[in-house]
Amino acid sequence: MVVYGTAKLVDDMELKGKWFKEEWARFYEDREKEYILIAVTPKRIEVLDYTKGIMGDETTWVPPSVTFK
User: Who contacts 68 (Cβ-Cβ below 8 Å, separation ≥6)?
Assistant: First the structure.
């Protein structure tokens, strides 16, 4: 899967606490400084999954996609 869109860094402590998973704790010695969220607003998503028969066009290889307005 490929996501095209706009990303922004979110350094809000309340949101960081909400989304943090305790199993990540060993990767972040100083959670306040080392852990940040990235909020992505998607514009288009492309998907390929050969195991489920989701493939690109046979001629152009363009993958199936969803475009958001």
Answer: 5, 42, 43, 44, 45
pLDDT of res. 7: 97
For the record, the structure tokens of 46 come out as 């492309």
Burial class (CB in 10 A: 0-12, 13-18, 19+), 31: middle
8 Å CB contact between 27 and 65? no
Among 20, 47, 48, which Cα is nearest to 36's? Answer: 20
Q: What single DSSP character describes residue 51? A: G
Using DSSP, how many helices (H) and how many strands (E) does the chain show? 2, 3
Cut 0.70: pTM above it: no
CB-CB contact of 25 with 34 (8 Å) = no
